[in-house]
Every structure is written in structure tokens, then in C-alpha cells.
Amino acid sequence: MTNTQLSGVLRERDACWEYCDKLDGNKVRCRFCHKVLNGGISRLKFHLSQIPSKGVNPCTKVKEDVIDKVKAIISAKEEYKEFQLLKRQRVAELKQEYSYDRTKVNLEQQIGKQYEVYVNYFEDHN
């Protein structure tokens, strides 16, 4: 699948595309107020949600139910990002613990071998 095809699939999956028209480049036009926004769907979400962010002016003509829906989408995405971050951190912690445990086992095996060498030496020389 090419990047263009993948982009199209992702575009279709984002519910906010129904509230805008895709223009050339990374521009979209709000279907409520007809304002053209640079930055694509991400900036449109902040425009429609009326959340002050990223220098985007809020839409003055968007319906209340759309505002709520877009806010929920933004919130879900932020929660998902937080979950992914926590997951990556936990995986890193587990890798460190595993690495530590393997090192500990290796040391215990080496100490055990050294102990056997000493025991054999003393048995042979007594």
C-alpha cells in the first residue's frame, strides 16, 4: 500500500472529515463557516471543538452536538497517546529488569562454576 493509499484510508477512518472539504496541500475548508484552515484535520478538530489551541480561531457556526463529538474524539486520542506512552515505558522497564535478571543469573552461574573449581581443587589437594 502506497503512502497516498494509506493516507486515504486514514482520512476515511477519521470521523471529522465529514465536517470539512479537503483542499490542495494540507488545507481544509470547514463546512459550517467555510473558513479555510492550513494544517489539515488536526487543526480543524480544534477549530470545531472551540478548544483554544494551536492558534486556531474557533468556529462560530458549528452545532453543539458536533462540538461535543469532536471534543470526545480529541480526548480519546489524547488518552490513547497517554496509554501508548505508558505502555512503551513499561516495556522499557521490563527490558531493564530482564537484562538485570539475565546478568544476575550469568553471575550466579559463573560464581557457581568458580565454587566447583575451588571444591575440586581442595578435594584433589587434601
Describe the 3D structure.
Keywords: Metal-binding, Zinc, Zinc-finger. InterPro entries: Znf_BED. This is BED-type domain-containing protein. This protein has one domain (3-124). The longest helix is centred in the last third of the chain and has 61 residues, at 64-124. The chain contains three helices and three strands, in the order αβββαα. It has helices spanning 3-13, 40-49, 64-124, and strands spanning 20-22, 27-30, 36-38. The protein is rod-shaped and about 95 Å long. The chain has 126 residues and is mainly α. Helix content is 65%, strand content 8%.
Summary?
The chain has helices spanning 3-13, 40-49, 64-124; strands at 20-22, 27-30, 36-38.
Average residue-wise pLDDT:
80
Low-pLDDT windows of residues = 4-11
Largest sheet: 3 strands, antiparallel
Structural class of the helix and strand makeup? Answer: mainly alpha
Number of strands: 3
Order of SSEs: HEEEHH
Organism: Miscanthus lutarioriparius
Protein name: BED-type domain-containing protein
Pfam families: zf-BED (PF02892)
Keywords: Metal-binding, Zinc, Zinc-finger
